[in-house]
Design brief:
six-stranded antiparallel barrel; 2 domains; mainly beta; globular; Elongation Factor Tu (Ef-tu), domain 3; single chain
């Protein structure tokens, strides 16, 4: 489980495609504190650490960890996000006693959305995102949603004729500074995870109407 509070921005240093895609992700985390088999959310996708290490570089030691992303994971996440050089929002798994600063996040991407527009509003930016029809009923004003692994509050929702929904988010300067949302731009695909409560309520409603 996660909270959607990003604690590091990693970079895909290398990608090796074989049965799965082996990804080497550079990180500012102390890799001595990362166990093999640990879960780390990478821009909203929960992945398992299979290797780790520290390389000596011109700027000093640089930590990294490796994960395997299956074809299913790659197919269900934002196109291009696993390419070498891409920045990723990182969050380590929630531990008992940790502060729950965001909302309960599972690290399972529900769908890929698309940024429609980015508009400055004071020092912040208003980001409008299109969610597919499959997710539209589960997004509500003042509800929580995870965008590329970042816990955010939905401002408003506008249903579209094709069943999709446009919803807006306010990204404050701090969030822009500590996540990859400083790269938000119209047309960019993003990973979406709906509130876990919305998922269970939808399942209960489906079962009741069956």
């Amino acid at each position: 489980m996660f909270t959607g509070i990003v604690t590091d921005i990693g970079t895909v240093r290398a990608r090796e495609d074989r049965g799965d895609a082996r990804l080497i992700i550079g990180t500012g985390y102390d890799v001595d504190t990362i166990d093999l088999g640990a879960s780390i959310a990478c821009s909203g996708a929960c992945l398992t650490v299979v290797d780790k290490g520290v390389d000596e570089g011109s700027n000093g030691p640089a930590g990294w960890f490796a994960v395997d992303a299956s074809a299913e994971t790659i197919a269900r996440t934002a196109p291009g996000m696993w390419d070498a050089g891409r920045r990723l929002n990182l969050e380590r798994a929630l531990r008992v006693g940790d502060e729950l600063g965001g909302h309960i996040v599972t690290g399972h991407v529900d769908a890929v959305g698309r940024i429609v527009s980015v508009d400055p509003v004071g020092d912040s930016v208003k980001v409008t995102v299109e969610a597919p029809a499959s997710l539209a009923p589960h997004i509500a004003p003042k509800g929580s949603i995870t965008l590329d692994g970042v816990s955010l509050t939905v401002n408003d929702v506008t249903d579209q004729p094709d069943g999709a929904a446009h919803f807006t988010l306010n990204i404050i300067p701090h969030t822009q500074a500590v996540t990859t949302l400083d790269e938000a731009a119209a047309g960019r695909p993003v990973n979406l995870e709906i509130d876990v409560l919305a998922r269970y309520l939808a399942r209960m409603q489906q079962a009741r109407s069956a």
